[in-house]
Amino acid sequence: MNISVELTLSPLQDTFEEPIIHFIKRLRESGFTVMENPLSTQIYGPYDEIMSFLTTEIRLAFERSENVLLHMKIVKTDRSDYEPNY
User: Fold this and answer.
1) Which CA distances in Å does 17 have to 1, 12, 14, 70, 81?
2) Given CB 3.0 to 4.6 Å as the disulfide criterion, which of 16, 21, 42, 67 pairs with 11?
3) CA 56, CA 61: separation in Å to the nearest integer?
4) Cβ distance 34 to 27 under 8 Å?
5) 80 touches 8 (CB < 8 A)
C-alpha cells in the first residue's frame, strides 16, 4: 500500500532555519519521491518503508531541537502525480 505524507517541521526557537533545512535534506536523500513547497514537504512511497524511515528521521529532528512541533498528514494513496483540473 502506497501513501502520501505531508510534513511541516516547526522548531519553536529563534534559530529555526537550520533544523528545517537538515530535516528536508534528509528527506531528499531518502530515495523516496519528495516534493517541497514553501509551507510543507511531501514524501511518497510504500507505507511500511515510509513510516519506518520517518520514525527514525522524526526522532533525529526532535533530538536536534529543544522545542519542536511536527504537523503530519497521511493519505492512503500515492498522490505524487496530482494535478489540479480547475
Assistant:
1) 33, 11, 9, 14, 29
2) 16
3) 9
4) yes
5) no
Residue 69: which residues within 8 A CB-CB, separation 6 or more? 9, 10, 11, 12
* Cell numbers representing residue 5 in the block: 505524507
Average pLDDT rounded to a whole number, residues 46-73? 96
Q: For residues 80 and 86, give the distance between their C-alpha atoms in angstroms, rounded to a whole number.
A: 18
The answer to whether the CB of 80 falls within 8 A of the CB of 24 is no
Q: What does the pLDDT read at residue 76? A: 97
Locate cell 522548531: which residue? 11
Assigned C-alpha cell, 40: 510543507
Residue 21: what residue type? I
